[in-house]
Design a protein that fits this description.
- The two termini are 13 Å apart.
- By secondary structure, this protein is an alpha+beta fold.
- It is globular and about 90 Å long.
- The protein has 15 helices and 17 strands.
Length: 510
């Protein structure tokens, strides 16, 4: 059995623009995670230019690339080993940018310089290298530029296909060039990084057959001379939605500014394909005589709905419908994307199917909210039929877990059981560990996956790529697994996997 990281999508940090935008939640990996909080360290490093040949570090010395052998009488292989342990996939950063952390962890005390042994023309040479805090940024810039130079460049299109026209929508006026302005060349490089990462590492790249290259080229074609950061965020939010993965996205908080949290005094629903205005708390119509909305701010409600739908991950039809209607709450944002200026009030056009009327209303400071339902509920219906509802995301706190066990005890003598997950949007796996044993009498393998990862770039950790999801690799050692789940559960794991593998044949061979 193999395990996978379901999704890893963090672009290379060219100028941090996309990194600031992409807020991914479904086991998304940040470009670098340093374990724990470090106090202020001596961040001076000895090399201003570093490269890697066959994964071995070389430094520029007297205009020549020289193979590094030792630093402060410690073999470079020890630095590499420690860097892989601490920084995993980003271990090379531990050599060209975060070498000072490794030396600290090794207990190496530095003064103004460090002793370095390197190989030049086959001859080992030892000399002192001055430590300079600027070197880490210089070395980082060199590595990033080299990566950028090696990437395939995204070229503009002659004509943007109609299918991708929506991706070039903007919120800001094109003349706005504030501190968040990003020029076209920077964006093109960032998007090249993003495309390269999608091609190599994104597990959902082929989920919907999305032509992401044409989509990215459409974005570049529509840029003109640049974009504000949030316009880029807005376009990337719509771009990512097309992959059909609801856990990779740009947060709406990266798109809205503080003064754009303008909301209507009512919620918007649908009835027989028409849009209605109603109050969430009371469930009453906003206007009893004119219940249907046709326009907001001069834009047809259907067009606003379609713009909202562009930001929603294309998963199931019900998911898209529900979330598109929820995004209608961000009315001022949607109006701006339709080039409508926002004032202190907005005109709503209502109809009863025969007559229309216009209503001027002031903006609300926050969307209308209804009281949140209990995350879990259970009852026994007529006919001794049990009913359990997971109304929201599953929680991992003790109270929530206790309620699950109490509910299952209540259901043990019922004639049947309905489990309602219509309102459940995911959450912790811990409740499943408590709940599934009521239905599965013996341990079973319920999830098998393979990694879409270059093992050379990211060697598998001892506990696999998905230990946080209780998905361990077939090759995990007994000692490591026993430390993680206990000796008894480790035995059960191996037994269940052995039984499963007797007749398992994967439908897709990676």
């Amino acid at each position: 059995m193999k395990t996978t990281s379901i999704m890893r999508l963090t672009p290379y940090p060219y100028n941090m623009n996309i990194m600031k935008l992409l807020a991914f939640t479904f086991f998304l990996l940040t470009a670098l995670q340093i374990q724990g909080q470090r106090p202020e360290y001596d961040k001076r490093t000895p090399f201003s230019m570093v490269t890697f040949i066959e994964d071995h570090p070389y430094a520029m010395v007297d205009n020549q690339w020289c193979k590094l052998l030792r630093i402060e009488d410690v073999s470079i292989s020890e630095y590499i080993s420690l860097s892989k342990k601490e920084f995993e996939k980003e271990w090379k950063k531990g050599i060209y940018r975060y070498l000072h952390y490794l030396m600290d962890d090794m207990g190496i005390v530095r003064e103004d310089s460090v002793s370095v042994t390197y190989e030049s023309n086959g001859v080992p040479i030892t000399k002192s290298f001055i430590l300079d805090i600027n070197n880490r940024d210089l070395a980082t810039q060199y590595v990033q530029q080299k990566i950028a130079d090696d990437l395939p460049q995204l070229s503009p299109l002659e004509i943007i296909p109609e299918t991708y026209q929506y991706l070039i929508s903007r919120i800001d006026n094109a003349s706005i060039k504030d501190s968040t302005w990003i020029n076209k060349n920077e964006i093109a490089k960032d998007l090249s990084y993003l495309m390269d990462f999608i091609q190599k590492d994104y597990s959902y790249v082929d989920l919907r057959g999305y032509d992401y290259e044409t989509a990215l080229r459409s974005i570049i074609t529509g840029i003109e001379d640049g974009l504000t950061r949030r316009d880029l965020a807005f376009q990337l939010k719509m771009f990512l939605a097309e992959f059909g993965d609801g856990h990779s996205r740009v947060s709406i908080r990266d798109v809205l500014t503080e003064n754009e949290y303008n909301f209507l005094h009512f919620s918007i629903g649908k009835q027989d394909g028409k849009f209605i205005a109603y109050h969430k708390e009371s469930k009453k119509l906003y206007d009893e005589d004119y219940s249907f909305i046709t326009e907001i701010g001069g834009v047809k409600i259907r067009d606003l709905y379609n713009s909202a739908k562009n930001m929603v991950a294309k998963t199931t039809p019900s998911y898209v419908e529900k979330n598109a209607r929820s995004y209608l709450a961000f009315t001022s944002l949607l109006l701006k994307s339709h080039k409508i200026s926002i004032s202190d009030s907005v005109v709503i056009k209502l109809t009863n199917g025969v007559q229309e009327k216009k209503v001027h209303i002031a903006w609300n400071s926050r969307p209308e909210r209804s009281s949140r339902p209990s995350a879990y509920s259970d009852t026994i219906l007529a006919g001794n039929l049990g009913y359990i509802a997971f109304k929201e995301r599953m929680h991992r706190d003790d109270e929530y877990l206790t309620r699950i066990h109490e509910g299952m005890q209540k259901m043990k003598n019922t004639s049947g059981l309905i489990i309602d997950i219509r309102g459940n949007g995911g959450g912790s796996r811990k409740p499943l560990n408590q709940w599934l044993p009521y239905f599965i009498q013996s341990p079973k393998v319920v999830n098998v996956a393979t990694a879409r990862i270059n093992a050379d770039d990211q060697p598998m950790p001892d506990k696999g790529y998905l230990d946080a999801r209780y998905a361990y690799p077939l090759t995990i050692s007994e000692d490591v697994l026993a430390d993680e789940v206990g000796a008894e559960r480790a035995k059960i794991f191996y037994s269940a996997v052995e039984e499963f593998n007797r007749d398992f044949t994967p439908s897709i061979i990676p």
